[in-house]
Amino acid sequence: MAEKPWERLSEASALLMEQERSAITEDILVAIAREIPAYTRPLEGAFGEAVRGGVDQALIQLVAMVRDPETSLREEGRRIYFGLGRGEVETGRSIGALLAAYRMGAQIAWRHLAEASLASELDQRESNLLAEAIFAYIDELSAESAEGYAQAQAERAGELDARRSELIDLLTRGRIGADARALAEAAASASWSVPREVAVLTWHAELGRAPVGRLPQGSIASGDADIYSALIPEPHDSARREQLVRAFAHIPSGLGSAAAPHMTFRSYAHSRAML
Fold it and tell me: Residue 152: beta bridge partners?
């Protein structure tokens, strides 16, 4: 395994980072709240603790790894930054804000340490290596957070797919009836806007999910071992209808009649017959 830049740093760099840690942490927190739009709010409560803890732990961990590359703090750090990435999904932010905060933190840390290294008469070679270590380390933290973000996104997508599959089953099997409130709640949990009318489109499961990408905006689909079913909102809209006809011109499929949402099961039956 290739040697990491911090593994070549001396104890002098570790001491320097320890001395500057508090000042670096405070400056980074101020800059994040001021410069990163997604975080321009008081760093208070659980959110503030998470940000402060992440910044402080990053510096503590880097010092520890200079002294011992195999430190157990590294595993704890991975959990923290993986978790920060997951948290961005939960709060509805993109990963870009967190990565921007990391880059800003690295720049602020290096600015402090560059000034401190001059005052402490750290030699130029060590100072250059310290800069390399800081930015390489931030790249690792960024990768860990990006991994956490991707995992949380995948889990959320899986949960949404499950809720949409359940909604489609309720409607195509006629299990939800004319209860408008129950329909609204089921649709909200599936992040689907209930249309005035809906039509069901079906195709054989052997074609897989590929046709989903051809559906008009606002459509949702799910499948099993036998068949895929898609709910097409507002099927009487001429532009949407033309899009559907073009997109599925060469795909064996069945389009059911338009129906009120609580009568979707009739459109589903027509769709299966057409298929």
Answer: none
Q: Tell me the pTM.
A: 0.66
Output the six-digit token pair for 92: 């509805």
CA distance 187 to 78: 37
Three-class SS of 33-86: HHHCHHHCCCCCHHHHHHHHHHHHHHHHHHHHHHHCCCCCHHHHHHHHHHHHHH
Of 115, 130, 109, the residue nearest 9 (C-alpha) = 130
**Strand ranges, E, within the chain:** 198-204, 220-223, 227-233, 254-255
The conformation of residue 234, written as its DSSP 8-state character, comes to S
DSSP SS3 for 93: coil
Contacts of residue 21, defined as CB under 8 A and 6 or more positions apart, other chains included, come to 56, 59, 60, 63
AA letter at 217: Q
pLDDT tens-digit map of 211-264: 999 999 999 999 988 999 999 999 999 888 888 989 999 999 999 999 999 999
By the 8 A CB rule, do 220 and 195 touch?
Answer: no
Distances (CA, A) of 123 to 62, 91, 97, 114: 20, 44, 35, 11
d(CA 50, CA 34): 17
